[in-house]
Each structure stands twice: as structure tokens, then as C-alpha cells.
Amino acid sequence: MSADQSTPSPARGPAIQVRGLEKSYQKLHVLRGVDFDVTPGSIFALLGSNGAGKTTVVRILATLLKPDGGTAQVHGLDVVTRAARVRESISLTGQFAAVDEILTGRENLVLVARLRHLSDPGRIADDLLGRFALTDAAGRRVSTYSGGMRRRLDIAMSLIGDPPVIFLDEPTTGLDPQARLEVWQAVRELARQGTTVLLTTQYLDEAEQLADRIAVLHHGRIIADGTLAELRQLLPPATVEYVEKQPTLEDVFLAIVGDTGTGSTGSTRTDATVAAVRPDGTSS
Amino acid sequence: MTRHFLGDTATLLGRSLRHISRSPDTIITTAIMPIAFLLLFVYVFGGAIETGSDRYVNYLLPGILLITVVSGISYTAYRLFLDLKGGTFERFQSMPIARSAVLWAHVLTSLVANLISLVVVVLVALAMGFRSGAGVLGWLAVTGIMLLFTLALTWLAVIPGLTATSVDGASAFSYPLILLPFVSSAFVPTDSMPGPVRAFAEHQPVTSIVNTIRALFAGQPVGGQVWIALAWCAGLLVVAYAGAMAVHHRKVG
């Protein structure tokens, strides 16, 4: 762990602390001793290819799965022995938007607010519909929503009750570029308000765009963990290459479509120099 | 954890009932097969079946009611499977709610949906000439037995709902159950069957339940059959509930 620089030392310890986490499915050794800490209020990206064990880590942290070995704590509460308490301070947004298609968007939000035993579920729902630009679609069944709208509703449902820790499991997998920007915008907004976000992703640019800290999960172990700057220092200084900077197809697409979702900025997407720096040790 | 059990169950029941009210086709399709059997047996085969009762539809209806429930409970497995597959189940389980409320809501929804299907089937039977000598108490007793039977079978349906790997798998478990009434006193009296078949027919749960309901509808004394019927239902309920809870526990820890 190289938590020495640039991360402000938290007063109340890490929001999430994982030590020596192990999990096997029959013969498949998915997690082989995973360690990491997540600072309160930060965005932490668990980066890895398919099958690296990202979802398993999230399911253990969300109290849906028991580890075979090691410990995991959320706000100092063990996810196995204090599972009920942990559930009060977390929220899970799984790999597929877990929204109820037959209900309307508003009914989905009211349902979760009721299950979190909050007073005035209707007002909470209306607030979130406004925040996630879903007010116009509030009374429509979710089966009529686009992928991006579903994901926004999904994330909005996760925010009900203001859980201090949110898990986002591959929040943008399967989304079109515009929807992806919408989700990124929502995640940044969360962190700005002090929520701790742990997200898993297989997209390098997503981790780079969003995360304060990135851990690379590979074959069941964390093989690198640090800020983007720290990870870059793992490699020899970049050699200067002259590359003609073409706009990416995504830039072109977004420019001609002329829509970048819910007010997110197009300017963050013009850096096309990312991929050349990666070593090819990871078989993604 | 159990602090919120009733409230959470009520909230989730409201959700499932909305599902039903927005896709009433699930109730219609539940009732279609039993009604088809009713028509087929009364108007095609019925004339050749000697039951000793004046109207074959009076003889037939109790068995048809059981078939209605058997075809209805597969929707519980189906809905539960969809919740699991879509991630809704995990969302609920990762929230600070009474975890078993998720299952109870599906089970209570099944009771409501099957009750509606049963009413539809009874109305069709009445239109076909079904008449009952049962009073209010008799009808209440029939309703009670049917609800107990539905409750037991629904908990059974929870097991494939939680363990199935495909939609087909989730609902296919009920097919063999639909055959049980055919090897019972539901369609024909058991004394016309050859020895071993008759022995099976007379000692499987459907016969005692059908005979009890038939006696209640006819306004006759139910005799010892009712206790056998209730014992079957209660036994099945206990076994199915324990099985479903064990699977649920393994699923969510």
C-alpha cells in the first residue's frame, strides 16, 4: 500500500477496508488474498478484465456472499458478523440495472424509499427524478426507458436514504457513449457530495476519468494500487513519440449527434493519448 | 431484522400486486388450461364416464380447482426467477430490510392471484351447470382448504424459482404436478382402476383433497378424508417451507 502521498489522511479510518480476502467456487480460486483501503468520500476503481473477481469482491462487501478467508469492513463494521448494520450504510448498483420494468420510474423510487423506511417517499422520489433528469419520464413504465435512463434510475434508487458508501458494479457496461457520460456525471456528483464510491470497471479510460485511486485486480490479487500518477510512475519515464492526434470515433459521434447527455462536458473526452502508455502484462 | 418484517412484506406485496394488475394475462393464462379441461371433460368425455353423480361437472370441479392452482403457482417461480436474474433480488437483499419479506411477498401474491383464477374457474363452471348445496360455512371451508393447498404448493414453487438457471426451468417443475390429478379420483372414480394404480390413486394427496371438497360442495359430511387432506397440505407446507428457506439461506447467507 503506498497511501503516503496525495491522499488526505482520514480522521475516522477508511470507509472500506479489505484484508486478505479469499473466495473459491468449487475448484475455481477467484480471490487469492485481496487487500485494499478506500478513503471516505473518494472514488475508488477496481479495474480488471472479465473474470478477474471484481463482482465477487463487490458481492462480499454488499453482504450477499460470505468470504472463505480474510476480512472486509465497511465503516469499521465487519461485513459477515455485522451484516445487518453494514446494509444500513451501503447501497449496491449491480452489473445490470436492477429496476422494475413494470413499475414507473417514480414507483421504483418510492418502493426503495419505503423499504428504507423513510418518511415522505413521494417527495424523495420527486427530488431524485429532478436530479437525474427523469421528471418527464416519471410516470412512464421503465420498460419504455432507454439504457441510459435505466442506469440513471438505477443509480438514483441507490442514493435513497443517502448511504455513505455506494458500490457500482460495472456501471457503464453495455451503455452507449452518451449514456456513459451521463453515468460518469452522476458518479462525480455523488463524490462531490461526500459519498464514498467503489466502482468496478473493465474500461481503462473509465478508471482514469473517474477514480481518485485505482486498484488493478488480476487473477484474484491486487497487482497495483495507487493514484493515476502513482501508477504511471511504475513505468519508466514515457518516451516522447509523435502521434498524429485524430479525434476518436466517440468524439466524432458525440459531435455530430450534438448531445452529451445531462449537461456533462464534452471537453473531458478529447484526450486521445491514453492507451499508448499501458504495458501489456495484463491480458484483458 | 424482524422489526420491519410486516411493513417490508406489505411494501413488496404492493409491488407484486401491481405487477399482476398490469399484466392480468397471467391470471387469464392460469385459468385457460383448467377451463379447457372443464369443457373437454364435461362436453366430450363426460358422457362416457360413470361417476354416480347426477351432473359430471359437479363431480369434476374439485379436481379442476386443484389443476388451476398447480398451473398458477408456476408464476411464482417465474416472477422470483426474473427478480433474481434482473438483480432486483440482490438489490433488496443488500438493503436493510427483513430478508424473508422478499419471499413472503411473492407467496402472498400467489395466494391473491390464484384466488382470482379460482373464482374465474368457478364462475365458468356455474355457467356450465355446476350447482352446489354448500352453505356459507361449506364455501368457507373449501376456500380455506384451497388457500392452504396454494400456500403449500407456492412454497414448493419458491425452490425452483430460487435455483433455476432458465425461465423454462423455473416453470417446468409444475408439469408433473398437473398429471397427479389424472391418477386420482378427480376425473373418474378410483374403483375402475387396476390394482396398483388404484392403490397409488387412493393414497396420494389429490384424492383426499378432491373427495373432501366434493363432499363440501355436495353438502355432505366430509368424514375422515378431511383430516387426511389437511395432513397432506400441512405436511407439504412444512417440507416445502423448510426447503425454500434452506435454499434461500444458502443463496444469501
Automatic annotation (TrEMBL), chain A:
GO terms for cellular component: plasma membrane. Pfam families: ABC_tran. Residues 16-244 form the ABC transporter domain. SUPFAM superfamilies: P-loop containing nucleoside triphosphate hydrolases. Keywords: Antibiotic resistance, ATP-binding, Cell membrane, Membrane, Nucleotide-binding, Translocase, Transport. GO terms for biological process: response to antibiotic. InterPro entries: AAA+_ATPase, ABC_transporter-like_ATP-bd, ABC_transporter-like_CS, ABC_transporter_ATP-binding, P-loop_NTPase. It is a peripheral membrane protein. One of its GO terms (molecular function) is ATP binding. It is found in: Cell membrane. Belongs to the ABC transporter superfamily. This is ABC-2 type transport system ATP-binding protein. The lineage of its organism: Bacteria, Bacillati, Actinomycetota, Actinomycetes, Micromonosporales.
From TrEMBL, chain B:
Keywords: Antibiotic resistance, Cell membrane, Membrane, Transmembrane, Transmembrane helix, Transport. InterPro entries: ABC2_TM, ABC2_TM_bact-type, ABC_2_transport, Nod_factor_ABC_transporter. Its main location: membrane. The chain crosses the membrane at residues 27-47, 59-81, 102-130, 136-158, 226-247. One of its GO terms (cellular component) is ATP-binding cassette (ABC) transporter complex. It holds the Pfam family ABC2_membrane. Coiled coil: none annotated. It is a multi-pass membrane protein. Residues 25-251 form the ABC transmembrane type-2 domain. GO terms for biological process: response to antibiotic. It is found in: Cell membrane; Membrane. GO terms for molecular function: ABC-type transporter activity. Belongs to the ABC-2 integral membrane protein family. This is Transport permease protein.
